[in-house]
Structure formats: structure tokens, C-alpha cells
Amino acid sequence: MRPDQLAKPGLLTQPVYEPGRPIADVAREHGLSPDSIIKLASNENPLGPSPLALAAAHRTLDDAHLYPDGAAIALRAKIAAHLKLDPAQIFPGNGSNEVMQLLAEAFISPGDEVIMGKHAFIVFKYMTIFFGGRPVIVDMPGYAHDLKQMAAAVTAKTKIVYLPTPNNPTGRANSAAEVLAFAKALPPHVILCVDEAYAEFLEPGEAPDLRPLIAEGRNIICCRTFSKIYGLAGLRVGYGYGPKALIDLLHRVRQPFNVNAEAQAAATAAIDDREHVERTRDINAAGLKQVATGLKKLGLEQVPSVANFIMFRVPKAREVFLALQAKGLIIRPLAPYDLPEHLRVTIGTEDQNARFLTALAQVLSTFRS
Questions:
Q1: Residue 269: its pLDDT value, please?
Q2: Contact assessment for residue 114 and residue 133, using Cβ atoms and an 8 Å cutoff
Q3: What are 303-357's pLDDT values in tens digits?
């Protein structure tokens, strides 16, 4: 029999996640030097990895023949101290994406309802479908999560609510007060998963602090990553934090040694690299203003962002995306997010942002002429 005849029936219609295109692939397609290409598609840190993290990862290579610490003891202890939590409340993952996937694997059964925003991180929908759940899609007026509508969508069948704030790809965030009130109002049979991948880009006090509710034993898990502000996307390391009872269940479904030794060492060191974090925040804040101003001058509608990217609307978005690639600029089309006329650009360095805006102006002039 063919593999497709042996596979689970739902797998044959399962959507496939499309990441930002790699530099080498675009270089080959357009006959460009990889060094000439700027990738502003995946919200990576334009400054590169934390220097402290890089040094720590290098030191582990002499022991690459040994398995990593399967319990990630040092990393969990460092994260717990940083967040003032117990290490038993920390779940390390192969990126925060793995944490959210394992949450779906552990808790979503066929027929369960899972609530998410219409323009939220698309993997929420894919994971729900794969494990037999029913995605409940809530509109996002103004490209932000409408927490009143999400609360109204909760039923006896609801198992998980996914709430990314700031949201990828729209860049909008809900206020701390809104999120706390929403979390308090959810019934006890619902798990709230708050995706905080971009929370470090918020100003102090803007991000909701859900730790007091977690301390009460509420079914809340918050997920963070070292891919963005710490610049460790290539090492795939993130974590979730929540009540110990929930974290213990996630350990039952994770694979042994799910976070490699280099990633554990790098992430542990990165937490102490406040200089890199603050420099990243400063460059991102200046870059947001630079790109927003440039898009405004080009007459393009944009969504105000508090993350490290901006979403904007442009006629013939797919054609613009492809034309920019030919010029060595990789950004992100958003048709899979039900946003076919929008593109998303990561904030880069001042020079990278300027090159993007120049290339975009050239492309638009071609389409408008």
C-alpha cells in the first residue's frame, strides 16, 4: 500500500507551515551573492546572537559526544531565578513552538474546541486540526485580539485559548489589564496559553504579569523564546512557565533530550546578557520609527507595532514580495493568515531598513507606472 493509504486520514488535508525563505535558496534562484541578501522575513535579531550565549555554546562543543542534560537543570534554574518562580514551574522546549505543540498533544482530543484570533500565529490552527480539535476563529477588529469576543466564544467544549500578545503577524498587543481580566474570567476547564514571544520588546509594565494567577493554580501557561531578543533562533530553544501540575503533564509527552546542549548553555548565558538585550531594544525602537515613517511617505497603510516587525498593506502584495526578493530583500507574505494584501517586514539595522525602504519604493514605482 502507498504511504498515503496508511496515514491518518486527517494528515492528508493537514496544512503545511511555510517559513520565511532561506538566504541560500533566494541567492540560487536569482543569481545573487548570499552576502548581498538581507533577510527581514522571520523576526530574527539583526544584531545576531548574544555574545555571552555564543561563547557558552562554543564551550560545549568539546563534549558534543555526550547527551545533553535531559532535565535542563541549569537552564530551568536560571529561568526560574529570572522570573522568581520554582524550577518545577519551567518547561524547556525546542523553541516555544514545541511547548505549544506539546500542550496541544497533551490536552486536545477529537471534538475539543480551541479558540484563537483570525490573524494569530497560524501554527495554533494547524496544531488544533492535527490533534482532531475544532479551531474556533474569532475576528480581530483593528488587527488586535478582541478579548470580549473570545470570552463569548467559550463553551463547555473549549479546551484551550491561544492568546499571543504582542501578536504575530499584526504587531498589536492587548493591555496588561485586559489580559489579566480575561484570564481571571475563564472557567476552570479552559487552559489559557499566552504566547509571549515578543514580550521583551514591550515597555516595562506593558506586558501582563500572570504569575500571581499561576500561583493560584489557574490553568495558565505562558510561552517565551530565545529566538527573538536574544538572537538564538538557529539553536531552537524556548520555554513555558505555569503551575507545576500542568508542567508535570507536559513532561509526559516531551521527547528525551528535547533541548540540545549547545542551546541549553547559550540560553542560560543569554539571560545574563542585559547589554545585548537593551541594545536590541534600542535599535528596534529606532527601527520601528524609521520603517513606519518610510512606509507613511510611500503612502502605505500600516498597523502600529510594538514588536520587532511591521505589517503593511500594499496592492499586488505577492508580486511586490517576489520583486523585492529579486533585489535581495526577503520579507514575508501573509496570505496564509487571511491577509492576502499584506506583507510583514522584520525591523533590521538602520542600514538594512533604509535598503528595504529604497527597494520597496523602486518596486512600487514600477507597479504604479
A1: 98
A2: yes
A3: 999 999 999 999 999 999 999 999 999 999 999 999 999 999 999 999 999 999 9
From CA 348, how far away is CA 362, in angstroms rounded?
Answer: 19
Within 10 A of 62 (CB to CB), how many other CB atoms are there?
8
Q: Which amino acid is at 290?
A: Q
Do 185 and 148 meet the contact criterion of CB atoms below 8 Å apart?
no
Cα gap 3→307, rounded to integer Å: 42
Residues 144, 166: Cα–Cα separation, whole Å:
9
pLDDT in tens, 140-155: 999 999 999 999 999 9
Give the 3-state secondary structure of residue 110: coil
- Count the neighbouring beta carbons within 10 Å of the beta carbon of residue 53: 27
**Cβ pair 206, 234 in contact under 8 A:** no
Distances (CA, A) of 221 to 115, 118, 298, 328, 357: 15, 21, 41, 39, 38
Q: Are 98 and 238 in contact (CB under 8 A)?
A: yes
Whether the predicted model's global pTM rises above the 0.70 cut: yes
Which residue reads 513532561 in cell numbers?
A: 251
User: What are 98's three cell numbers?
Assistant: 514545541
Prior bond of 166 cis (ω within 30°): yes
Q: Find where cell 534600542 sits.
A: 282
341: region left, alpha or beta (phi > 0 left; psi from -120 to 50 alpha): alpha
193: enclosing H helix or E strand: strand 191-195
Three-state SS letters, 130-189: HCCCEEEEECCHHHCCCHHHHHHCCCCCEEEEEEECCCCCCCCCCCHHHHHHHHHHCCCC
Report CA-CA distances (Å) from 50 to 127, 238, 266, 271.
Answer: 31, 15, 8, 9
For cell 503593511, the residue is: 312
